[in-house]
């Protein structure tokens, strides 16, 4: 086993060992369940998304000029913590808007994710190489790429650029406009929890929204059933016969051998409920897994009898989980390791979470349906030192990007769906005339960025119209300034020419 493989193995083992208490300490955005992120990205190909794949300085980007008119706008997607093709396939708003704006589309991959590995196979060997994995370095990459595109694509030098992103990518889009206002004229930051940091948002808010989603779609009975599950799983997991029963009821691919294995089941269940809240879309979708419309409603149909106990309760929960992992009915068994640290994308994000992206999460088991887990920064720091050999910077995001003190900036749309637990850390009120909050009452995680659909609720239709209104406004303002500068240059030239013919006598 080489150094890189050994390092990854240590991370995985330690992450699993600490999972019983710390499995929710590191914030995590929605990700495919497949261990092979690239396979998942290619599995669900977007029929609208025709692009060319290019690279620049070891970083990959996707480009589409099908609808672009020279000097027309560039819609620039600020890549997330994963393979960029997956995000391109799931950001339909850009594809739907390309012809309307005559826009070029760029999807830029974030360094250290997908195929953009700055040190090749060594990129994940140790913090020595991973230390260059930061949001500010990624933003600098995007800035350099835009300069490159404008310098090498005929007709692009005068194109206005709008940054667009969802989730972590949405955070980057907003920060990109803040840090590089001379490069991007505006930003659409969808489901971007830029306030989900220490001292800015209560750590318990996230899991309370997940619980509210289940209560909204399944009532108190559904929430009560989930709450009862944790104690039942622990009780069964404490004995050999109980672990055997858990393995059988949940149809696990690998039988549970130890209590540590049972902790993985807790983590697996918890992440399943969270993911369902994030992708509770109004139509069938396969953003993470192939799911029916309003999947929480379907899940909660299995959890309406909150008097169930023991085997019957666990079977009801297993049937509910099956909606998420086996909606197609083809899965023969469930793999609880799907949510473990299983890919470079996971490792990269966990490294960022242990350095700059310190986003406190906690639950109390009373006002939410999850087991009590307290946020303790010191314990979190110890875990990061143990697993990733780094020390987190508690307030770095606020110090770097401003936190709540961003009123001096301009031209950013912050959109949030109220079904999305990440809306707790989002900007949900207007800060100024050009720092605008768009609320989507029936929206889950960046629903507005997805392709338009006949089943879209009216709130997301309104949100997209508002977003396009502001994007059109930014483009118009940019072009008007460009024309004004051109007139000024011409007037200066004319004045200079006339001056040459003025006699001093």
From TrEMBL:
Biological process per Gene Ontology, one example term: proteolysis
Keyword set includes Disulfide bond: yes
UniProt key word Aminoacyl-tRNA synthetase: no
This protein's GO CC annotations: lysosome
Protein EC: 3.4.16.2
Reactions catalysed according to its record: Cleavage of a -Pro-|-Xaa bond to release a C-terminal amino acid
Signal peptide range: 1-22
Principal cellular location given in the protein's record: other
Record keywords: Carboxypeptidase, Disulfide bond, Glycoprotein, Hydrolase, Lysosome, Protease, Signal, Zymogen
Subcellular location(s) per record: Lysosome
Entry superkingdom: Eukaryota
Top-level enzyme category: hydrolase
Alphabetized GO MF terms: dipeptidyl-peptidase activity; serine-type carboxypeptidase activity
Function: Cleaves C-terminal amino acids linked to proline in peptides such as angiotensin II, III and des-Arg9-bradykinin. This cleavage occurs at acidic pH, but enzymatic activity is retained with some substrates at neutral pH.
Family: Belongs to the peptidase S28 family.
Quaternary data: Homodimer.
The protein's name in its UniProt record: Lysosomal Pro-X carboxypeptidase
Biological source species: Acropora cervicornis
């Amino acid at each position: 086993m080489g150094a890189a493989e050994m390092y990854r193995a240590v991370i995985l083992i330690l992450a699993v060992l600490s999972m019983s208490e710390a499995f929710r300490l590191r914030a995590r955005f929605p990700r495919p369940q497949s261990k092979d992120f690239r396979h998942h990205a290619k599995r669900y190909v977007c029929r609208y998304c025709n692009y060319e794949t290019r690279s620049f300085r070891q970083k990959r980007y996707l480009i589409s000029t099908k609808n672009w008119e020279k000097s027309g706008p560039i819609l620039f997607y600020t890549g997330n913590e994963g393979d960029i093709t997956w995000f391109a396939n799931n950001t339909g708003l850009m594809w739907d808007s390309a012809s309307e704006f005559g826009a070029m589309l760029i999807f830029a991959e974030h360094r250290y994710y997908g195929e953009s590995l700055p040190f090749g196979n060594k990129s994940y060997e140790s913090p020595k190489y991973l230390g260059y994995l930061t949001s500010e370095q990624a933003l600098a990459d995007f800035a350099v790429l835009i300069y490159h595109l404008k310098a090498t694509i005929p007709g692009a030098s005068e194109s206005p650029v709008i940054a667009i992103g969802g989730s972590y990518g949405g955070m980057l889009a907003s920060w990109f406009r803040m840090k590089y206002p001379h490069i991007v004229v505006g930003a659409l930051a969808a489901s971007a929890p830029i306030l989900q940091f220490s001292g800015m948002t209560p750590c318990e808010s996230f899991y309370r929204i997940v619980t509210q989603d289940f209560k909204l779609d399944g009532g108190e009975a559904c929430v009560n059933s989930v709450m009862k599950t944790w104690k039942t799983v622990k009780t069964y997991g404490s004995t050999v016969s109980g672990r055997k029963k858990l393995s059988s009821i949940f149809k696990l691919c690998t039988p549970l051998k130890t209590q540590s294995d049972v902790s993985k089941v807790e983590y697996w269940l918890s992440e399943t409920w969270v993911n369902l809240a994030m992708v509770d879309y109004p139509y069938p979708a396969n953003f993470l897994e192939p799911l029916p419309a309003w999947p929480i409603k379907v899940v909660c149909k299995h959890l309406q009898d909150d008097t169930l106990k023991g085997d019957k309760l666990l079977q009801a929960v297993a049937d509910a989980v099956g909606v998420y992992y086996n909606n197609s009915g083809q899965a023969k068994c469930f793999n609880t390791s799907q949510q473990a640290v299983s890919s470079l994308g996971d490792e990269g994000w966990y490294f960022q979470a242990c350095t700059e992206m310190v986003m406190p999460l906690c639950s109390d088991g009373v006002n939410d349906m999850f087991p009590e887990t307290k946020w303790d920064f010191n314990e979190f720091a110890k875990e990061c030192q143990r697993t990733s050999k780094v020390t987190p910077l508690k307030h770095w995001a606020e110090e770097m990007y401003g936190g709540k003190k961003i009123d001096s900036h301009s031209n950013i749309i912050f959109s949030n769906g109220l079904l999305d637990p990440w809306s707790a850390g989002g900007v949900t009120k207007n800060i100024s005339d050009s720092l605008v909050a768009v609320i989507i009452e029936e929206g889950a995680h960046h629903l507005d960025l997805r392709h338009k659909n006949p089943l879209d609720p009216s709130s997301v239709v309104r949100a997209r119209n508002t977003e396009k209104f502001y994007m059109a406004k930014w483009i118009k303002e940019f072009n008007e300034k460009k024309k004004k500068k051109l007139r000024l240059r011409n007037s200066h030239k004319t004045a200079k020419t006339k001056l040459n013919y003025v006699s001093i006598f």
